[in-house]
Design goal:
alpha+beta, six-stranded mixed sheet, five-stranded mixed sheet, 4 helices, 18 strands, about 20% strand
């Protein structure tokens, strides 16, 4: 059964159903596939129980991108009058052809775009015929070859890390499928590392190492064609984060600076407050102010020690207070001696505390020096780690350069082998030429021998004839000689 017969048979069935059920609208095919920028024609066939109805309205619409939005109106046909209204969005690119008698409506695109990749609806309205199926839908599938995929690496391609290789085509209809492949330097397919997974163009690699490096190929495929993209994956040794390292160094430096400021302030405060306390304690037992002398600082004469100054002040107090005591000089002297010894002991205690303070300051400075040395050790270890990372990178580069050198030597060996084969072929050809010339020489020598044999035969014939003539002449001579003697 041909296509025309199928359409006619379908029309008969629709006519029978329309008489029973009412109006019926149906597309010739549920889906139309067309390449982008190509033309296409969509047809719908309708039947009604009122074939002679004076009014027929045929409208073509399309589904919106957002299901919540109303449908997009493309064009409307009004009968009688055969008036067609095409919306401005499709005007100049879409035409409607309607045959009410044949009950066929066609929507033709001069060229389709990706915006036309949607569901279209054909609806027929006839007054008084509302039962049945007044509308039908068909899918217009716009085919677009996939674009060259874009491949990226997600994650740090360093030893021990997990990374993803992504592959995505910017366009393609129907949506393309993706496939990953792996090759070595000789373009020989290689298996993926263990635990590797592939899903929707994403290749997941776990615990990558140097062996994970290589050439990877992603192929994007749909109904139109396939297109591929090659990428090189280089897994490097782990490297230190320069930003975090700089932050650690800056934090250590700031902490050291704050510690230095605190230690310096404490030392200055103790130096400033220590003489005032000593003077207050020393003057507490004096009735008269100390003698004013030049070049004195905080009650201590220039060039004298603190103990000498205290002893002098004590002697002054002793002389001053001995006049005020009672006649019992021994008792007054003893009390003064007790006070003098107490003052000496307190002065010595203050000196001891000052020495303790100085020793604590020295301890703090020692601890500060220890902290600086530990920070220096950390910086040295950091530099060692960076140098080791640089060494690994250098070894990796050396390995790559050695591989390149091996490939170059292999290519040189192949070229030398080709040169040897060429030279062998030349030698063989020259040997063949020599053999040919030798054969020619032998043939010429054979020709000369043949000519020599011919000449020799001829000479032998002549010699034979001359010998015969000589014998004849001799015989005649002998005969004559015998005759004359006789």
């Amino acid at each position: 059964m041909g296509t025309g017969q199928k359409v006619t048979f379908g029309l008969y069935i629709l006519s029978a159903l329309s008489v029973i059920l009412g109006i019926n609208v149906e597309f010739q095919q549920p889906e139309y596939e067309v390449a982008r920028d190509d033309p296409v024609t969509m047809r719908c066939i309708f039947q009604t129980k009122k074939p002679n109805s004076p009014t027929v309205i045929i409208s073509w619409t399309a589904d919106a991108d957002d299901p919540t939005e109303p449908q997009i109106t493309i064009g409307t046909f009004y009968h009688p009058g055969n008036q067609i209204d095409i919306t401005s969005e499709y005007e100049g690119r879409v035409t409607m052809t309607n045959d009410v008698a044949a009950r066929i409506s066609s929507l033709s695109f001069s060229r389709v775009t990706m915006q036309d990749n949607r569901v279209f609806q054909c609806a027929v309205k006839i007054p008084g015929d509302n039962d049945g199926q007044p509308a039908d839908t068909a899918r217009l599938l716009v085919l677009v070859a996939p674009s060259v995929p874009v491949c990226n690496v997600q994650g740090a391609a360093e030893y021990g890390h997990n990374i993803n290789l992504t592959c995505k085509s910017a366009e393609g209809s129907p949506p393309p499928t993706y496939k990953w492949e792996r090759f070595d330097t000789r373009n020989i397919p290689q298996p993926f590392p263990p635990r590797t997974t592939e899903s929707n163009g994403v290749l997941s690699l776990f615990n990558v190492s140097r062996e994970t490096s290589g050439y990877y190929k992603c192929t994007s495929t749909n109904k139109i064609r396939s297109v591929s993209y090659n990428m090189t994956l280089s897994v490097m040794p782990p490297s230190m984060n320069i930003g975090s390292t700089a932050g650690i160094i800056g934090g250590c430096a700031a902490g050291l600076l704050v510690l230095l400021i605190v230690v310096y302030c404490c030392c200055c405060r103790k130096k400033k407050n220590a003489p005032d306390h000593e003077m207050g304690d020393a003057v507490e037992f004096h009735d008269k102010p100390p003698l004013e002398t030049e070049n004195e600082s905080d009650g201590i004469r220039y060039g004298e020690s603190r103990e000498d100054t205290i002893n002098q002040r004590t002697g002054y107090l002793l002389e001053d207070r001995s006049d005020r005591f009672d006649t019992d000089g021994r008792q007054g002297g003893n009390r003064y001696d007790d006070r003098s010894e107490g003052s000496h002991s307190r002065s010595r205690d203050r000196l001891d505390r000052q020495e303790d303070s100085r020793s604590r300051s020295s301890d703090r400075l020692d601890r500060y020096d220890d902290t600086r040395s530990r920070s220096s050790d950390r910086l040295d270890r950091c530099d060692d780690g960076r140098s080791r990372s640089s060494d690994r990178l250098d070894r990796y580069d050396d390995g790559r350069s050695r591989s390149s050198d091996r490939l170059d030597r292999y290519d040189d060996g192949r070229s030398r082998s080709n040169d040897r084969l060429d030279r062998y072929d030349d030698t063989h050809s020259r040997s063949s030429d020599r053999l040919d010339r030798y054969d020619d020489g032998r043939s010429r020598s054979s020709d000369r021998l043949d000519r020599y044999e011919g000449r020799r035969d001829h000479y032998d014939d002549r010699s034979g004839r001359q010998g015969d003539r000589y014998e004849d002449n001799r015989t005649r001579y002998d005969d004559r000689h015998n005759y004359e003697h006789n």
